[in-house]
Model the fold of this input.
Amino acid sequence: MPVITGRFAEARLYLLYCAALLHPGHTMPTFAEPEPHTRDVPPLSDEELGLLMEEGRRQIDRQMADLDRIRNRSGALATVALALIAAVVGRFADVLGRHWVLIALWAISCLLAVLSVAGAASVLSARAVLGRVDTRLAAQGARPMRASLAEAYVEMVSTGEETVRTFLTVFRDAVTLAVTAALAFFIVLASIELTDSSVKNSDETGQKCLTSTICSAPLSLR
Done:
């Protein structure tokens, strides 16, 4: 599998996952290459080999369940982030013409929300590399079959663990971007409300001054 390392590896990997929406079907990169299992399984009894295979199946089933949970949560996150984008874009007319700082904060909020949706969608649609046993290949494999299957499970579980860890990291980053976008949008809304409230109070004060009457004492005649 492709591996992303070096400086800003997490940010670069997240952007690659977002860009993968335009090129579906490619094998997605991870943070580390699964360590290959180069040693043979030591001589074990049939009972021990059966126990090793059972634990391997359980670990692979858990990896698939973890991946399903991550994807289900990503679907919910994508829905929330899309609603956030609609809310942010809906206030464009209110933001236009304001101070440039407020416009920049609104643009940042919109960009982060879009990146959050892209990350969540990539988790839903990206190809996940998990360990699986091909029955046909297993039947054509080395003998004894139980020992070769046990060794295959040992090799496959590390690949699934790395894939699940990477997908979980992308989902976590998407949540962080969505929360940051929401906070920035709330700051924009609060600033708009405060500005409009101060302008309204100033207008009301000016109107009161224009319509107020001044009572003066009558001049005394000498």
Summary: Helices lie at 9-19, 46-90, 92-95, 100-125, 135-139, 145-211. The mean pLDDT is 79.
